[in-house]
Amino acid sequence: MAQPRKEVWMDRRHFLGATAALLAAGTSKMAWAQADRPPLAKIVNIADGRFGTIIPDPYRWMENPTDPDWLPWMKAHAAYARRMLDAMPGRDALARRIGELTGDLPVASRVKRSGERTFLEFRPSGANVAKLYLLERPGGEQRLLIDPEAIKDASGAHTSLDWWSVSDDGSLIAYGISPAGSEESVMRIMRVSDTSHFPETIDRARFGNPNWLPDGSGFFYVRLREGAVKGSADYFANAVAWLHKLGTDPKQDVRIAAGGDVVDGYTILPIDFPFIVTTPGSDIALLLPYGGVRRENALFAAPLAQVMTGDAKWQTVARMEDQVTSFALRGKDVYLVQEKGAPLGQIVKVNATNPDLTLPQIVVPEGKTPIETADTGLVATKDGVYFARQNGGPMTLHRLDPQGNVTNITMPFGAGIYGLFGSTEADGVDVRMAGWVQPFGIYRSNAGRALVDTGLSPRPAFSTADYESTQIMATSRDGTQVPVSIIAKKGLCRDGSAPALGQCYSSYGISAAPVFSPRYLAFLEKGGVMFEVHARGGGEFGAPWWRAGQKANKPNTWRDFIDGCEAVIRNGWTSSAKLTIMGTSAGGIAVGNAMAEWPDLFAGAIDNVGWTNTTRAGVEQNSAPNFPEFGDPSNEVEYRGLVAMDAMSKIKDGVRYPAVLAMTGITDPRVAPWHVAKFAARLQKASTGGPVLLRVDFDAGHGVGSTRQQVDAQFADVFAFVLNNAGAHAG
């Protein structure tokens, strides 16, 4: 569920019973299609009984992808939703405008420097997906290396570049590609000089994460176990770390570590992905048993030469109880962000050859704002260690120099940082960042000096000068002050008449930092308001803020969301009759429960690939990696927490719920599409309010790997739905 943040997430609101004007403007547009609506989903009387709790589950059959009714039902409702959405006034105009905005904006998403060479993941103007380019020297021409648009899956589905890793000398690239947004990566290895490939391919490489040997003769990587069955509850269990030597059959790879191995007293768990980490100039390798979405992980070190044999004597650098959330390796020094005894994070340094966290060297003491580790973490370079801090949304950038001094690097605007890129072989760091109304760019700081725009992500032709961001503080029902970030036209009349889209994610300790998408301008141009509620469960104020919205504390997330929406309404930005909420992925918990608890607060709700049937944790392939965040259903206390956050089970017959747009991708590997389908089916049966549309993309998954045109079309639907709910004309 967790994913690198890309677009902003949103949530909630009710459709009927607001005003006569809304009824006249909105309901009539939707009524025409009710007659040709596909049949309601079949009901099979079954219940989930656990720890004395009985939960009806009449749509359990949807969890079986081979059920003969599954795909026909999904296709029928997808076609119906398509007709309804296409019929909304102004939807086509929105789509054209969004296409103009995104098509004209080239976007750089990742950079890697190797000597004079710069490798750049970049989506050029008009392109549909990101591609990999090489600049032989600063300011030089871009040479195309990997073009997913030129690669077609056997089924004709689009292909995406999932990840890539460059050898230390810049001569080789290992990369993963997958079809239809599935994230089921197949690894290839390319020679940069002539773009030729080594003969081997490696499947089951979704979590490949190649780390190269110093001489470029091979790399460590992670592969799902042989025989893993896609879609099964244990699909990700017991992944294996391997050493691959170039030009050899992967069957000859050296096994390094896997679930069940005992490493210096720690048993690698089935949910752990055993990543091996190397860095240029170091003869040390690190083993990170990364527990899915778990923030705190163990860490081990061993001599690189020993690790290459497959029989390393690992030493513990940190155990889970040490609460280490990020690390960086430079030479024999390991820098760690530790939250034990310092909940906002402190940076400590240990020697990898004799690590001892009982007497750590604290090099950056705990500050007043938390060290950000979800989106950035520590990056070691030749001239220091760079790190970011969170402050209720906006972030700051800092450098620890080799002498132990910390420099605060001036930020050019209130920004979210979505990538720090650097190497121990070179000074400086590249920073990918954006603001709420400042487009993404790649900036650079050398030796802690001011950030400079590199120009690697060109500025757009359009202007954002007419828009501004504002932050207000909402008082939650228990008195907690919750930030709400609002984006709108400058000088917007705050009389409650503006259509609004409110979002909330707030899980995994991931912060809703400022982010920009040109698609949002198409909605803001119509007088729309967008806002993000920074509810508990995110990382805006560090580990305490995250824990206050985790597991049994999860109700704080959706109640902060509700109270944040009320604050936006009280401040005149919108009204209940104009407000739609949206939650993506784990944000489905926030939007689903907010709608279920207070259905008449919202005009509409959008469940985007949302996790809304949490009591069924444990039956899908991405369940177990999420137990540390939401709870293990085999544990009675944690299961009761999952029951409390299950939005689908809270839907009641005969309630006037808001209009709902439920969206999923049929290949979604993170949140199984039956979550969204079951939620929509239950609402279609129960609600006496607005229509419930089920939008399905049969060439997409969770959104990771979707093409520009797919995302454009999705947001045209979203904004048309929001404007229609508000009685506003999208044309």
Question: Can you characterise this structure?
Answer:
The protein has 731 residues and is α+β, with helices and mostly antiparallel strands. It has twelve helices and 39 strands. Strands 32-33-35-34-36-37-38-39 form an eight-stranded mixed beta sheet, with helices on both faces. The protein has a four-stranded antiparallel beta sheet with strand order 3-4-5-6, with no helix packed on it. Strand 8 (172-179) and strand 9 form a beta hairpin. Helix 3 runs antiparallel to helix 12 (708-725) and helix 7 (555-570) crosses helix 8 (587-597). The longest helix has 18 residues, at 708-725.
TL;DR?
The chain is α+β, with helices and mostly antiparallel strands. Helix content is 18%, strand content 29%.
Give the arrangement of secondary structure elements.
Layout: H1 20-31, E1 47-50, E2 53-56, H2 70-86, H3 91-103, E3 107-114, E4 117-123, E5 131-135, E6 142-146, E7 159-166, E8 172-179, E9 186-191, E10 211-212, E11 218-223, E12 240-245, E13 254-258, E14 262-263, E15 266-267, E16 272-277, E17 284-291, E18 299-303, H4 304-307, E19 315-318, E20 324-330, E21 333-338, E22 346-351, E23 361-364, E24 379-381, E25 384-390, E26 395-400, E27 406-409, E28 416-421, E29 429-434, E30 441-445, E31 452-453, E32 467-475, E33 481-489, E34 500-503, H5 519-524, E35 529-533, H6 543-547, H7 555-570, E36 579-584, H8 587-597, E37 604-608, H9 627-630, H10 636-644, E38 659-665, H11 673-686, E39 692-697, H12 708-725
Parallel strand pairs: 34-35, 34-36, 36-37, 37-38, 38-39
Antiparallel strand pairs: 1-2, 3-4, 4-5, 5-6, 7-8, 8-9, 10-11, 11-12, 12-13, 14-15, 16-17, 17-18, 18-19, 20-21, 21-22, 22-23, 24-25, 25-26, 26-27, 28-29, 29-30, 30-31, 32-33, 33-35
Helix pairs in contact: 3-12, 7-8
